């Protein structure tokens, strides 16, 4: 039981670290200053960030539960490595999906709308990120 608690704790911590790093990468790749906009109370950015975190959670969960090997020690290290690789792949596809969505909506700039506080654009991207995460997590799992 202690071993199970240790492994669970390790994967939980790994998942949280990957989520934080993933959100930082996405924040860096999407134009705009998320922390400043959150401080200003920009709800559109809040919706966008919520979609990112929920989406990353789905992707990372799929990456963690996906690998399985019968031997405990091998399974642990293989699982950690696979979780990191599949999470990184999921984050890459998450960004590809964002840029494809950005290309398809040429009538307006989603990023500009969100940075200007357009809550509807933030909610739309929230839903898009959650939808993409469901697809990506299905591909991983």
How would the blueprint of this fold be written?
Blueprint lengths: L1 H28 L4 H7 L2 H23 L6 H33 L5 H6 L3 H22 L1
Helix pairs in contact: 1-3, 1-4, 3-4, 3-6, 4-6
Largest sheet at a glance?
Answer: none
**In total, how many beta strands?**
0
What amount of the residues lies in strands?
under 5%
The first-to-last residue Cα distance is 26 Å
Count helical runs: 6
- What spatial form do the alpha-carbon principal axes imply? elongated
User: Which radius of gyration do the C-alpha atoms yield?
Assistant: 17 Å
Overall helicity: over 70%
Q: Point out poorly predicted stretches.
A: none
Structural class: mainly alpha
Number of domains: 1
The ordered H/E elements are HHHHHH
Write out key terms for the chains shown.
single chain; 141 residues; mainly alpha; elongated
Give an overview of the whole structure.
It is a single chain. With 141 residues, the chain is mainly alpha-helical. It has one domain (2-140). Helix content is 84%, strand content 0%. Helix 3 (43-65) runs antiparallel to helix 4 and helix 4 packs antiparallel against helix 6 (119-140). The mean pLDDT is 88.
Summarize the structure in short.
By secondary structure, this protein is mostly helical. It has helices spanning 2-29, 34-40, 43-65, 72-104, 110-115, 119-140.
């Amino acid at each position: 039981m202690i071993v199970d608690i240790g492994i669970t704790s390790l994967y939980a911590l790994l998942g949280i670290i990957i989520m934080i790093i993933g959100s930082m990468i996405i924040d860096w790749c999407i134009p705009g200053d998320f922390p400043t906009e959150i401080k200003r109370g920009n709800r559109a950015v809040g919706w966008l960030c919520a979609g990112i975190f929920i989406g990353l959670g789905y992707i990372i969960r799929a990456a963690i539960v996906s690998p399985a090997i019968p031997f405990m020690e091998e399974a642990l290290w293989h699982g950690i490595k696979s979780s990191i690789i599949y999470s990184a792949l999921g984050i890459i596809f998450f960004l590809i999906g964002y840029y494809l969505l950005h290309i398809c909506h040429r009538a307006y700039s989603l990023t500009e709308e969100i940075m200007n506080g357009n809550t509807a654009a933030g909610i739309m991207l929230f839903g898009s990120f959650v939808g993409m995460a469901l697809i990506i997590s299905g591909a991983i799992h």
